[in-house]
Design brief:
The complex is a heterodimer of chains A (about 625) and B (about 170). With about 625 residues, chain A is mainly alpha-helical. Chain A is about 60% helix and about 5% strand. Chain A contains 27 helices and 8 strands. A 6-stranded mixed β-sheet of chain A has the order 2-5-4-6-8-7, with helices on both faces. Chain A has a two-stranded antiparallel sheet with strand order 1-3. In chain A, strand 7 and strand 8 form a beta hairpin. In chain A, helix 20 crosses helix 22 and helix 21 runs antiparallel to helix 22. The N terminus of chain A is likely disordered. Chain B is α+β, with helices and mostly antiparallel strands and about 170 residues long. In chain B, the strands form 3 sheets. In chain B, strands 1, 5, 7, 8, 10 and 11 form a 6-stranded mixed β-sheet that branches. About 10% of the residues of chain B have low confidence. Classes of the chains: A mainly alpha (about 625), B alpha+beta (about 170). Chains A and B meet through helix 24 and strand 7 of A and strand 8 of B.
Chain lengths: ~625, ~170
């Protein structure tokens, strides 16, 4: 319910006539419609051929087909640490969202490219909705706490939500997220952001600012843990959100305890303690460590329950709790002395070096010496591309600097979340545990920062607009506004330096021509025959021909294999055909190793080889 | 009124003349080969006879290749590169009597050694037509007579038409 003052204010803002009520909404309404149209169009119609997206679509299509033996099945061999069965259970991208996609694919059947992207549209819509709700929570608190006489007018909230949606979608980073319809980053990020929303909204009441309403309940911490754990159920990378989520809980507790709003319970407790002769701090924060430990512990329980679920599921299906080959891939990628990388065919050389970084590099010092420059360069690449987004922290920090005492704990918490998440992600990637240049991994820090930046812009505008009468307040509002303008200029500078960041880019086309892939698939023949394709082209091929068995082998390593190793590789996986782009050095090498050229289609070469299944070959 | 009638008649005559001219142009497109009859023996004899520069491959007294289509060049000229990356040429194709249009994808292939160079894709729909093809001079160069045919995309990958032998002179 809106109180009288609010109603009067809103009435004076919007006018009382019916036309003057809706006229101000024409602008944001139309802009929102256009934004929504683009979001839906990109989500549903823009095909993307990036490696992971194409591969995941192939896995989904195969798993939904009648040939699949497992719930989540792949028939692409893309790592060569050990010989593996083909087809096999999917290990790279095992997550709930993948199962949702398989289920949906079974419902609609093959041949509906727009329909099969509906789950992605749902995830994206929920993600944007959660971002807007985070903004609403922060703005609501600001309007109560910063001494403003009225809540934020709805029209201002409308424009702010529109700005938020635009910063999250209408740019090259957003375009990648919207068009990568089959990767698991949006659903995983959504889970964590929904948890953050739950954490900061829990117990909020519009009329009472009692301690009970704002204090974090133990169940809230546990539920936040479940949300973060759901992120891990969606994507293995979100294991990071175990420690990071605990840090979030701790940050909220610290902010509430030491920088929170007036806490009547704490005051009463302090008064009682003072009367009893106890030190004020101890009396006010009696049982502090217990309460904090309990909440952090319960977060871990919630997260651990979800983690246990996924690990148990992996153990039952794969025989290990964490069977993602990415862990070996990271060892090779970061600490492998070139030419050894994650595509190196270890089993053909009888090497087990991929199992540890020390074995890979020879010593710890070598491993660090090799990994650090690579991690730093990837991080630099990512941060420079994400400049317009992390620079939004500047107005957020400006707001905190100028009006820290006036900020409600939720805004402070959001700001702390931003700093913690950027810091944790940077530390994670610097530790060479993942590749930073995959910008979709950064969805949570970017979303939180855009929310905080939008709040800062709005608050600066309002304080400047509404406190013009008082000189002191005007000065304060002006300083805030200058901070925000400085942040905006920095952000624009980031964009102007590399304008492509603000321009939408086209999706990547497939590497091989449709006719080349079609002919190669026909030449390959039915199972158990397999096709050998270069790494980059294999995933585009797989999304079109998921029933096919594929060996995705790097063109970088193939020319180094001798006849014995090529024969072993091909016989093991039943390779009868190879597809490489014209000019690839693998083509001439394969011809020397017993393949013969059969077709040339546009820029593709198709080679064939007699089918020679190896004795005792795994199916 | 008279002027209107006169103008209309003149317009009709002009249209008729243009249509005749189009017909002549179509015949010219066939390179003096002329319109073929629809009887199979007429086409077979025409293909056996060949042209000045092209001929159809004959083995054991019959046309070599598959029995789904007949093909012959739309123009009796050698395939020569003119400095462009692609050498365009046109092939006349016809579905043989009693045959339905095949369901698989159909490609026009030029064979060099053991490799089929795909020069065009035949779209389904009609029973006769002219196919625009192109040879990529970045991949093919030299001089010689190259066998060419239509191929249906299936596991055995055999020709689906008679095999044409066309002289080719290509430079990178």
């Amino acid at each position: 319910m809106m109180d009288e003052t609010s109603a009067e204010k809103l009435g004076s803002d919007l006018g009382t006539g019916s036309a003057s009520r809706w006229l101000p909404w024409i602008g944001p309404g139309l802009a929102g419609f256009v934004l929504g149209f683009y979001v839906v169009a990109w989500c549903l119609t823009t095909a993307d051929y990036s490696e992971d997206d194409a591969y995941n679509l192939g896995v989904i299509r195969r798993s939904a087909s009648h040939v699949a033996k497992y719930w989540l099945e792949t028939s692409v061999v893309s790592s060569f640490f050990e010989p593996q069965t083909n087809p096999s259970r999917e290990t790279w991208h095992r997550g709930i969202s993948m199962y949702c996609n398989v289920f949906w694919q079974k419902l609609i059947g093959r041949g509906h490219p727009a329909l099969e992207r509906i789950p992605h549209l749902a995830w994206v819509s929920l993600w944007l909705a959660v971002a807007v709700l985070l903004l609403a929570a922060a703005i609501h608190d600001l309007s109560r706490q910063s001494g403003q006489p009225a809540p934020v007018p709805k029209i201002q909230f409308g424009w702010s939500a529109l700005a938020l949606g635009t910063m999250l979608t209408l740019n090259s980073w957003g375009f990648k997220l919207l068009t990568h319809a089959f990767v698991d980053d949006v659903p995983a990020g959504l889970c964590v952001l929904a948890g953050v929303l739950f954490l900061i909204r829990r117990g909020r009441t519009s009329k009472l600012d009692s301690a009970k309403s704002d204090a974090m309940m133990p169940a809230t911490a546990a539920t936040f843990g479940v949300f973060c754990g759901l992120g891990f159920l969606m994507k293995d990378f979100y294991l990071l959100w175990g420690p990071l989520g605990a840090a979030f809980v701790l940050a909220v507790l610290v902010i509430q305890e030491f920088f929170g709003e007036t806490n009547p319970k704490a005051i009463r407790r302090a008064d009682r303690g003072k009367e009893a002769g106890r030190p004020i701090s101890r009396a006010a924060h009696g049982g502090l460590w217990f309460r904090w430990s309990l909440r952090v512990g319960l977060f871990c329980v919630g997260f651990g329950a979800m983690m246990g679920l996924k690990m148990g599921w992996s153990y039952v299906e794969l025989g290990g709790v964490m069977e993602n080959p990415a862990r070996y891939g990271a060892n090779c990628h970061f600490s492998g002395p070139r030419p050894i990388d994650e595509n190196f065919p270890f089993f053909l050389y009888g090497s087990k070096a991929y199992t540890s970084r020390v074995a890979m590099a020879g010593s710890w010092s070598n491993a660090i010496r090799l990994a650090l420059p690579r991690a730093c360069s990837y991080l630099y690449m990512a941060l420079s591309q994400l400049r317009p987004w992390w620079m939004l922290l500047v107005p957020g920090l400006g707001l905190a600097f100028v009006r820290f005492k006036k900020l409600p704990w939720r805004t402070r918490a959001l700001l702390a979340f931003c700093i913690l998440s950027w810091g944790a992600y940077i530390a994670f990637f610097l530790a060479s545990l993942g590749v930073a240049f995959e910008l979709r991994y950064w969805i949570v820090p970017v979303t939180l920062t855009v929310v905080v930046g939008t709040v800062a812009f709005l608050e600066a505008y309002r304080s400047w607009d509404q406190t013009r009468s008082a000189a002191k307040a005007r000065r304060r509002g002006g300083v805030t506004l200058w901070w925000v303008v400085a942040g905006l200029l920095l952000m624009l500078h980031g964009g102007l330096w590399d304008p492509s960041l603000f321009f939408v880019k086209e999706g990547r086309p497939p590497i091989h021509s449709p006719d080349g892939m079609k002919i190669a698939h026909a030449v390959q023949g039915d199972e158990p025959r397999a096709i050998l394709i270069d790494c980059w082209g294999a995933h585009g091929f797989y999304r079109e021909y998921p029933q096919s068995r594929i060996v995705a082998f790097s063109s970088f390593h193939l020319p180094n294999l001798d006849r014995e190793k090529i024969d072993r590789l091909c016989n093991l996986y039943g390779v009868t055909c190879a597809l490489y782009p014209i000019g690839d050095p693998s083509i001439e090498h394969l011809k020397r190793m017993g393949f013969s050229e059969r077709f040339r289609v546009k820029d593709d070469v198709i080679l064939v080889r007699a089918f020679q299944p190896e004795e005792g070959r795994k199916p | 009124m008279r002027l209107l009638t006169f103008t209309s008649m003149a317009g009709v005559l002009l249209l008729l003349a243009c249509s005749q001219r189009d017909g002549a142009a179509k015949n010219t497109v066939l390179g003096g080969i002329g319109p073929l009859g629809s009887r199979p023996d007429q086409v077979e004899s025409f293909l056996r006879q060949g042209g000045q520069l092209w001929k159809a491959l004959v083995e054991n007294g019959t046309l070599a290749g598959g029995d789904e289509f007949w093909i012959w060049p739309a123009e009796d000229v050698p395939l020569e590169s003119t400095g462009t990356p692609s050498v365009p040429f046109r092939i006349h194709w016809r579905l043989r009597p009693g045959k339905d249009f095949p369901t698989g994808d159909i490609y026009y292939c030029v064979k060099i050694n053991a490799t089929d160079f795909v020069a065009a894709k035949l779209e389904a729909g009609t029973s006769e037509g002219i196919l625009d093809c192109g040879l990529d001079t970045r991949q093919i160069s030299g001089e010689g007579v190259l066998p060419q045919y239509l191929m249906i995309l299936q596991s055995d990958m055999k020709p689906a038409s008679n095999v044409l032998l066309l002289p080719v002179r290509l430079q990178r």
